[in-house]
Amino acid sequence: VYFEVRKYQEYGKLSGINLEELRKGARVEPGEGKKNPEDFALWKKAKPGEPKWSSPWGEGRPGWHIECSTMSTKYLGESFDIHGGGNDLIFPHHENEIAQTEACTGKEWVRYWLHTGFVMVKGEKMSKSLGNFVTIRELLQRYSAEVIRFFVLQKHYRSPLDYTEEGIQHAKNNLERLYNTLENIRIALEKAETPFKWGKEEFELYETIRDARRKFYDAMDDDFNTAEAMKPIFEVANAVNAYLTRVEKPKESVLRKALEFFRMISEVFGIFEDYFKEAKKTKEEELIKLLIEVRSALRKQKNFELADRIRSQLRELGIQLEDTPQGTIWKRIEL
């Protein structure tokens, strides 16, 4: 059973395909039963060894395109907001899905189409056939899910994503820069002043945070432009670090504004999630502070061997201790 494309007047509205160009040089193969070369299968006759179901046209199975239309309308309704897929599915698959579904229901099927670029390796599409692919499972053995997510977010979803180890390592380094900023804020809050009265430095930092929030939303409203949305995140990180370097006694209220910004980023991008889990963070911090107290006591007793062992083993767990004139501080250093 074929869908007669010529009877659907809007065919090509997604891909911009020209039917007349499509027909040039095309022909109907003997025995196909099509009226026109561009017609596509809705139901296929059963073949030996294939799954089959009964139908008014005999035993067979659904065509590739109709499967997707049927599943999506069953679970999402005759009209829904977002349909995604790779760029290679725009034509003919998604074009055919639109034609058959809207011809059936008489309604607009999908309001927004999101088509992703290919994952590339040295200029070629990553694929099993070329043997140049890496699975997510393999990547997760070397990097956290957060690092992989951050790597993907650095490119617009419609653009090709060039996979390299150097690229993922660069994403990891950039994410560590942001985590270092969060750690700097946490440490600064321990000695920050609570009065709300701000000086020039606080107002400058607040303006940067406010502008960055607007830039972030503008970028995300522009077709989910995550690559552009990354820029204001680093603007805030740089501004916070510069503020903490310049100011002897930072103000708690403006640092809380910076934390609110990073929490918003966390909720949208799915990064820093563990950092903002208060219960887990509190227990972890209490344990680290206890170990710092034990280490300080050991140093006073001149038991430097055991004190150094605590420091080195904490570092292996991703916690770095720094001895300062004001006391020992700690930072998370690994992802």
Architecture overview:
The protein has 335 residues and is of the alpha/beta class. It folds into 3 domains: 2-116, HUPs (Rossmann fold), CATH 3.40.50.620; 164-269, Isoleucyl-tRNA Synthetase, Domain 1; 278-332, no CATH class. 51% of the residues lie in helices and 13% in strands. The protein has 11 helices and 11 strands. The strands form 5 sheets. A 3-stranded mixed β-sheet has the order 8-7-9, with no helix packed on it. The protein has a two-stranded antiparallel ribbon with strand order 1-2. The protein has a two-stranded antiparallel sheet with strand order 3-4. Strand 5 (80-86), helix 3 and strand 6 (110-116) form a beta-alpha-beta unit. It is elongated. One of its GO terms (cellular component) is cytoplasm.
Task: Write a compact overview of the structure shown.
About 50% of the residues lie in helices and about 15% in strands. By secondary structure, it is of the alpha/beta class.
